[in-house]
Design brief:
4 copies of one chain form a homotetramer. Chain A has one domain. Helix content of chain A is 78%, strand content 0%. Chain A has 9 helices and no strands. Chains A, B, C, D: Belongs to the TMEM175 family. Chains A, B, C, D: One of its GO terms (cellular component) is membrane.
Chain lengths: 197, 197, 197, 197
């Protein structure tokens, strides 16, 4: 199994998940600004889920970059991750429809939690194959961000039963945690534009 | 016709089938756990169909790996396979809606049977092109797993008219038969992580 | 503009058209064989449209194979072709819903006619770029099959106003004309399996 | 992050946006020509949005062509662009449903404006990385077409509140501005078909 096909298939699935979520956005009832505003929670959810897929796509690429040999285990761990992410259009639509409700909000968090765990399993499996001294094993390190995200998801699910809006803030926080540092690192590079020339 | 384009096109179609099935999952009626639980058969069906596409994608890759020259016959045998698999979102949705009914369950099995036969035809056609002594001909061997799956589908379709749930167990069994050995082989490799270094 | 990206983009669009058509198949009303049989015209239409996309994908590949340089004109001629083909899920669904009606049947033919003309324009444009003595110019030759298909579509559209079913037979005939010869050529190759070894 | 994966992912997302818009076209009510004619505004919108995606795909390719190194900033600027474009099926469907209404028409323009700004940000970011003297910096030049489009979108949004049809003409004008020159340049090349041989 060539790595490029695994990457291409995963990219394809992620690109489709990203794009078909828009099909779950219902048409506003009427042609007024109020009709559009009624969709605000759905649009914000769409933005959040879009961000998540963008982050997974980005991290997934870096993760696979370190793989030298694709085994059956890596392949299935990857499909396991894609399975949970593939449910995102479903959970996004449900939480968008009932953004003040506990169960849809908790389910959204549960799916993101399952995705995060699936991602961690994929990491473990690659490290097991590549060896403890491999590039990935060192790069992942203590993996504070990964385990911190899992903790935030768990907290979000618990909080969803008391205050769904707070749980949704937790989910947005996880996205920001992964999104912002990327830009920081980039800024360092941007200050040395001639570094690669 | 380059092999890489055939692979890329097949991967694209499989990735889309895998992902759009989620669009067939209806939104739960209401925001309660009961509303979500009412979707359990649909979600289980989704999981089963996801597994099937994952297995076909995996096996399809190994199959094409052995092809040296893509002929018109291979191309159409491949499209024939994709045709039956493309109906999976349709049959999955129908069986999900009527999981206790005979006809939807039998139809699901019939589509999987047609896919399995189409896969076997693709195998034959490749072997005819590559020669009896080719890598694929030897790898396929007596093809117990392939013919066994076909037998299980036929049995499942027959059983569907008496006990749909049992037929669905048969279909799940086929998926497990293809899924589990992969992991066994992988474990052997995993025990020798340095083998490829 | 690299040729590989044009091919990849076209393949992506064709793979998506092929696959999302299944989303236009409505779920049968009920769980009986009669409910499924009521979908027969829709399923036959799906098969026909699937065949058309398969044929276009196949021919499109051979066409682009001869291109040495992608110009803006080729790019837009290609997008023009993809535009008409992208309407296929729409026309397929409408003809499927009203398979005994003249207008939906004529529209289906009109879209296929527009696609065939767009394909011919793409051929002309490539030949203009590659030169009259190019491989493609000689391969296309008098292009009996291409112009014959266009004539059959025109005839089908006219016939649709008298007998929709006959028009649909015309459309199926075009698909067969393109499908069968491919297999004949293949059979010649299949008889010499060692030719490429 | 390899450039080819960024290109492939963007192409995938654009191909899917292009194709799933057809799913937003409702089936005509009935089998008559009148039923089809009632969809005219929707079909024209579909054509316009198809053109936009075709133009973005084309320009996006030329833009990325000049990139030598993909940084995190470029990646996120690219996802930012894809986010706004991904809303196109939603805004197209709404404007198609209410083509005489101000708010849907203004929203369509606002999304196109956001996409144009996102594209400009992506350009800036790439130029910042590649250096002021880079190929792209010189090619973009004073960027009259880019800023002119933004001005036309702003004008269109303002006009939408008085005359939606005029705003839609503005949007179509932007598409033509980007579409026609491409063909002019091409014609120059077409007059020298032997240039590349």
């Amino acid at each position: 199994m060539g790595k490029s096909r695994l990457e291409a298939f995963s990219d394809g699935v992620l690109a489709i998940i990203l794009t078909i979520m828009v099909l779950e956005l219902p048409e506003p009832h009427g042609d007024t600004l109020e009709a559009l505003q009624a969709l605000t929670p759905k649009l914000l959810n769409y933005l959040l889920s879009f961000l998540y897929i963008g982050i997974y796509w980005n991290n997934h690429h870096h993760l696979l970059h370190t793989v030298r040999k694709v085994t059956g285990g890596i392949l299935w761990a990857n499909l396991h991750l894609l399975f949970w992410l593939s449910l995102l259009p479903f959970t996004t639509a449900w939480m968008g429809e009932h953004h003040n409700s506990s169960i849809p909000t908790a389910l959204y968090g549960a799916m993101m939690l399952a995705s995060a765990i699936a991602y961690t399993i994929l990491e473990w499996r690659i490290i097991r194959n590549e060896g403890k001294g491999s590039l990935l094993a060192r790069a992942v390190g203590t993996n504070i961000k990964g385990y911190g995200s899992i903790a935030l998801y768990v907290a979000g699910i618990a909080v969803a039963f008391a205050a769904p809006w707070l749980a949704q803030c937790f989910y947005a926080l996880v996205a920001l945690v992964w999104f912002i540092p990327d830009r920081r690192i980039e800024r360092v590079f941007a200050n040395e534009p001639d570094a690669e020339s």
